[in-house]
């Protein structure tokens, strides 16, 4: 059995993220993927069989950063709601200990947050493929605070939990298959609003609708405003409401989680919460936004459909087979 020292002494395997824009993370030997939960704050692992928002929520945008006295490469993983995969900050006395914390989606309010900065570390064992390059591989994800991302295989709950801790005795629950998600050839439509449907009315009768404030700003133009009370979760209705207020509809609806968070196109319905939603509208002629930046945004909009799973995949099928065999041009 490997010691804690030997695991920490392994070389980083950051090649799996080299030049990669979007990934899916699957638990090793388990047909379960890391998802950003619809509440906008928590994460879980589950199958892709539900389709729809589940596919969007299983895709993570990759941002590379370099930090530390000795410059070290890390990645940030940004989810469908613009927040970053992480966990609560670890007090110094609890770093690299066995204390377990629930993983979460976090805002990036300061430039460097150790709990959202990840390194890929090589795995042990002859049954694990070596992570050589950006085509994918199996790795441990180790944050700057000294903790590992763990997939908990509990059958007592419908949605299985994700945690972080410094305990590396059971390495198999720390293994994650990193799979590159290539952009698809089509641009997905926003979810259709069902606010006036009979089914929606029946649901409303049983469950009070969510109400929240929406604050919006136009990138580069300084125009800003509020929707003081928005009812429901429909992103299509938000777009229509904003177009009516502003008098134009040629914008990309984005969210930004924190001062240093990147713009993330909002392609799914709003989080299932009553938190104030902060929206940035990016227009094609926005000063300071090059065509490359806009193209990157559209790439993100096109990333999700390629994750559609085949029928009844075996438990040990690689995620690469789920996203297809398309090669990048």
UniProtKB/TrEMBL annotation:
| Region of interest (Disordered), residue spans | 309-329
Q: Which Pfam families does this UniProt record tie to the protein?
A: Ubiq_DUF_assoc
- Segments forming domain DUF569: 211-281
Question: What InterPro entries would the database entry show?
Answer: Actin-crosslinking, Ubiq_DUF569-assoc
- In Swiss-Prot or TrEMBL terms, this protein is called DUF569 domain-containing protein
């Amino acid at each position: 059995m490997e010691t804690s020292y030997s695991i920490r002494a392994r070389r980083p395997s950051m090649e799996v993220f080299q030049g990669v824009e979007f990934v899916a993370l699957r638990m090793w030997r388990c047909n379960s993927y890391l998802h950003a939960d619809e509440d906008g704050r928590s994460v879980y692992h589950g199958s892709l069989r539900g389709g729809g928002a589940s596919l969007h929520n299983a895709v993570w945008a990759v941002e590379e950063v370099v930090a530390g006295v000795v410059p070290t490469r890390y990645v940030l993983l940004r989810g469908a709601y613009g927040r970053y995969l992480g966990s609560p900050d670890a007090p110094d006395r609890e770093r690299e200990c066995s204390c377990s914390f629930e993983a979460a989606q976090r805002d990036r309010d300061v430039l460097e947050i150790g709990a959202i900065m990840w390194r890929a570390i090589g795995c042990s064992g002859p049954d694990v493929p070596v992570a050589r390059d950006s085509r994918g591989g199996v790795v441990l994800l180790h944050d700057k605070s000294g903790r590992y991302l763990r997939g908990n295989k509990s059958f007592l709950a419908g949605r299985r939990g994700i945690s972080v801790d410094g305990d590396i005795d059971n390495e198999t629950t720390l293994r994650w298959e990193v799979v590159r998600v290539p952009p698809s050839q089509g641009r997905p439509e926003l979810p259709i609003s069902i606010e006036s449907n009979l089914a929606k009315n029946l649901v409303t009768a049983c469950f009070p609708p969510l109400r929240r404030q929406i604050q919006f700003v136009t990138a580069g133009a300084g125009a800003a405003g509020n929707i003081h009370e928005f009812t429901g979760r429909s992103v299509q209705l938000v777009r229509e409401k904003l177009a009516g207020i502003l008098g134009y509809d040629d914008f990309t609806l984005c969210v930004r989680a924190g001062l240093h968070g990147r713009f993330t196109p909002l392609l799914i319905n709003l989080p299932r919460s009553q938190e104030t939603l902060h929206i940035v509208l990016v227009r094609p002629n926005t000063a300071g936004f090059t065509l490359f930046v806009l193209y990157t945004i559209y790439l993100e909009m096109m990333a999700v459909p390629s994750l559609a799973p085949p029928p009844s995949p075996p438990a040990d099928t690689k995620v690469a087979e789920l996203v297809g065999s398309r090669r990048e041009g």
